[in-house]
Write a structure and sequence with these properties.
This is S9 family peptidase. Keywords: Hydrolase, Protease, Serine protease, Signal. GO terms for molecular function: serine-type endopeptidase activity. This protein is of the alpha+beta class. The strands form eight sheets. It has a ten-stranded mixed β-sheet, with helices on both faces. 46% of the residues are buried. It has eleven helices and 38 strands. Helix 1 packs across helix 10 and helix 2 packs across helix 11. The protein has a domain of 225 residues: Alpha/Beta hydrolase fold, catalytic domain (Rossmann fold, 3-Layer(aba) Sandwich), CATH 3.40.50.1820. The protein is 19% helix and 35% strand. It is globular. The N terminus is likely disordered.
Length: 669
């Protein structure tokens, strides 16, 4: 054990002495270093388990980034260690790999059809540190050019003008904390700052003539402020926000260059809105038209065709994606072919506006690229991603269930309407009558995120190979269920979301086919906090837990997270500089309640994580071991907030399955 960790253990042992009258000796640590991986107390992975997992770990998907060179699709997919850029030029055609980096690339933005050059911008960091730099890939020369400073700065949110002459993006280069907006002249290579107001700014869309830029300042998932920059005078004009505070999504100029389309939950006619709707605003008339008024769910994205004849948008309806297309300018619905039930992303009109590309993903099929012929109402598949040679017919689709939690819905005059929590339930097939299934509860991060029924080889292996039921809840604070639901876990209400997991444990106890005595919890980032909090609040009801890059103390997390994220997270969790909030963090944080963890724990972390620093993992590992409890621990020196390299991901998944075998299945079997 290192000197630093020995000293940390001594300090932590003193801190927890007051909360634990009887402290067992810390278990001996068996440490192994292999390449960029450091593992502690993790047994050797049996060859049989590695072989059993192999096909599940060799599934892959393809995600649409846009159209390239006219009739080709630019997609992201992985054929080796990391996801790279590929081009596909025909339905089911060959995927031509364009980039070859040891690090994954992301954020690909193809040049518009009318641009003066052909290629795409992409983002890449180092070892998961999220200090993303922007690069240009040129189609003609196949060369790559660094566009940003190459230092410890974040650069993202690329928007390109119609003629490709200007590129706007956000950057923390000025002070490492604030996101300014820069505009780069793609011909001269010169960049200038157009917004440096402080805060988290992003570019949204260039006007058709390239003289104006829509921008927005993001405060939190529930609060942002849109505006417009005159690129000739430099004037920034913020738009009025009905109700004072609202959430905004995508903003784009209409083909006329004057009116705009946007997504918002601003009040309508003085009435509060729960969901984000698609809207059209004409400044000449002052009229705002709600285009998705009849759909009581969030609009997650929209895109306009270059020829100005169509608009496509996607709604998130109880976790399922639904595609809609409107003809412009009258906003009439366009009939579409039937699409598989699942998730929709990557929507992009072809340069001529006649076709719409999209990514489709379902619980039983990984992401693939499809194209819709709008006139012919025809859906055509462009990629068929591998599922490791597995029989896809054996994959399990989840059932959407709702379970009651501890409180009532606000506004119920009788006070009798229990709040219901949605969850996706993956149940093994062909379970013998009378058999009780062990359960894993998987909790998403964010917390302003949403678990949705996308393809997961992890879920399919749990269900099909280990015979474990998987429950994936969207506890309060999750996105997708309205602004009230989103705010129910903010600041001092943090543990109410943990109580929603307690209610799920109560629901499991009522299910004749689920085994309440064999329940594990699994989650990453904020979901990692939820794992630890569940293990401290319900120790007698949890058999084992897996915490991935999780928060163990909100105070130390906010102190050590990267500067550019701190204010964003304070808006959700609370401000640690406030003595009352600091005391609240001390009271609820798993680190200060580690003595209550009585089940085996597995902690996984990336050393370069800028969001949840690796010290969050180290301190909870030492604290729990200080109480004599066994802890498995893995640290990847070349990863950040999650594991993006295949070798690392494969090892972590195999170790996790071994952990479930030993601590969730073993004793009961």
């Amino acid at each position: 054990m290192s000197l630093r960790r020995t000293c940390l253990l001594a300090v932590l042992s003193l801190a927890w002495a007051a909360t634990s009258a009887q402290t067992r000796p810390a278990p001996e640590v068996t440490r192994e270093e292999q390449g960029n991986r450091i593992s502690e107390n993790i047994p050797a992975i049996p060859a049989a388990l590695i072989e059993q997992l192999n096909r599940y770990q060799n599934t892959r998907g393809a995600n649409v980034a846009g159209w390239s060179g006219g009739d080709c699709l630019l997609v992201s997919t992985r054929f080796a260690e990391t996801a790279q850029a590929h081009r596909v030029c025909a339905p089911m055609g060959m995927r031509e790999q364009l980039t070859f980096y040891p690090e994954p690339i992301a954020g690909m933005v193809p040049s518009p059809a009318a641009a003066w050059r052909s290629g795409f911008v992409f983002a890449k960091d180092t070892g998961g540190d999220e200090f993303t730099q922007l690069y240009w890939f040129d189609d003609e020369t196949r060369s790559t050019t660094l566009l940003t400073d190459g230092g410890r700065t974040q650069n993202n949110g690329v928007v390109v003008s119609r003629d490709g002459g200007l590129m706007a993006y956000s950057s923390t280069a000025r002070n490492g904390t604030d996101y300014d907006i820069l505009v780069r002249d793609t011909r001269s290579g010169e960049s200038r700052t157009v917004v440096a107001e402080g805060g988290r700014w992003q570019a949204l869309d260039f006007s058709p003539d390239g003289k104006r830029l829509l921008v927005s300042r993001y405060v939190s998932i529930a609060e942002s402020y849109p505006g417009e920059v005159d690129l000739q005078t430099g004037e920034l004009r913020l738009f009025p926000v009905d109700g004072g505070t609202a959430a905004f999504g995508r903003f784009a100029y209409a083909p006329d260059g004057r009116s705009v389309y946007y997504v918002s939950d601003e009040p309508v006619d003085g009435q509060a809105e729960q969901f984000r709707t698609l809207r059209h605003h004409d400044p000449a008339s002052g009229k705002v038209e709600i285009l998705s008024r009849a759909i009581p769910w969030d609009v997650s994205d929209f895109i306009l065709a270059d020829d100005g004849r169509h608009l496509a948008f996607v709604t998130n309806e109880d976790g399922i994606g639904k595609l809609h297309v409107l003809s412009l300018p009258r906003h009439r619905p366009v009939a579409l072919p039937e699409l598989p039930v699942g998730l929709i992303g990557g929507i992009a009109f072809s340069p001529d506006g006649k076709r719409l590309a999209l990514t489709l993903n379902s619980a039983t099929s990984p992401s693939d690229a499809y194209v819709i012929d709008l006139a012919g109402r025809k859906l055509e598949r462009w990629t068929r991603s591998e599922v490791g040679g597995l029989d896809a017919d054996t994959f399990v689709a989840p059932t959407l269930v709702h379970y009651p939690t501890f409180d009532q819905v606000d506004g119920d005059p009788a006070g009798e309407s229990r709040r219901m929590i949605p969850a996706f339930y993956y149940r093994p097939a062909n379970v013998p009558a009378g058999k009780k299934l062990p359960v894993v509860i998987q909790i998403h991060g964010g917390p302003e995120a949403q678990s949705r029924p996308g393809f997961s080889p992890f879920a399919q292996f749990l269900v099909n190979e280990l015979g474990i039921a998987l429950l994936v809840p969207n506890v309060r604070g999750s996105a997708g269920y309205g602004k009230t639901y989103l705010s129910l876990d903010n600041a001092e209400k943090r543990e109410d979301s943990v109580r929603d997991i307690g209610a799920l444990l109560d629901w499991i106890a009522t299910q004749p086919d689920l085994d309440l005595d064999r329940v594990g919890v699994y989650g990453g980032s904020y979901g990692g906090y939820m794992v630890l909090a569940t293990m401290t609040n319900y120790p007698e009801r949890i058999r084992a837990g897996v915490d991935i890059v999780g928060i163990s103390h909100f105070g130390t997390f906010l102190k050590n997270t990267e500067d550019y994220r701190r204010d964003l997270r304070r808006a959700e969790y609370g401000d640690e500089r406030d003595p009352e909030m600091a005391a609240f963090f001390d009271r609820i944080s798993p680190l200060n309640n580690a003595a209550k963890i009585s089940a085996p724990l597995f902690v996984a972390q990336g050393k370069n994580d800028p969001r949840v620093p690796w010290t969050e993992a180290e301190q909870i590992v030492e604290a729990v071991r200080g109480n004599g409890q066994p802890v498995w621990y893995v640290l990847f020196n070349d990863e950040g907030h999650g594991f993006r390299k295949k070798t690392n991901s494969d090892y972590f998944t195999a170790a996790t399955m071994l952990f479930w075998q030993q601590h969730l299945l073993g004793a009961a079997e």
